[in-house]
Specification:
3-stranded antiparallel sheet, 3 strands, about 40% helix, mainly alpha
């Protein structure tokens, strides 16, 4: 017990790397002059949400909501990490 095998480590590292990869960055476009969101700099066309800065844009394209939408619309085999509640559900 408590041993860590190389294949377990590499699977974990793979999952972490895949989950952090942005998906559909081209769907987030620069905007200006939208009266509903005068301070927004970016809009995600797919999720219909707005962002003020580059950091928020990058966080969004790596986020769960965006990745789930991208999976539904463009790439059905895209890995999206399950939520903690999904993992802890009994069989």
């Amino acid at each position: 017990m408590g041993l860590c095998f190389d294949n377990q480590v590499s699977i974990h590292v793979y999952c972490v790397c895949v989950c952090l990869m942005p998906a559909g960055e081209k769907l987030v476009v620069a905007v200006s002059g939208d009266p509903r969101f005068p301070h927004a700099s970016f809009k995600c066309e797919m999720c219909d949400c707005y962002f003020n800065d580059e950091f928020a844009k990058k966080a969004h394209v790596k986020g769960r909501r965006h990745r789930l939408n991208y999976k539904k619309m463009y790439q059905p085999d895209l890995y999206v990490e399950p939520t903690k509640s999904m993992v802890s559900q009994p069989l």
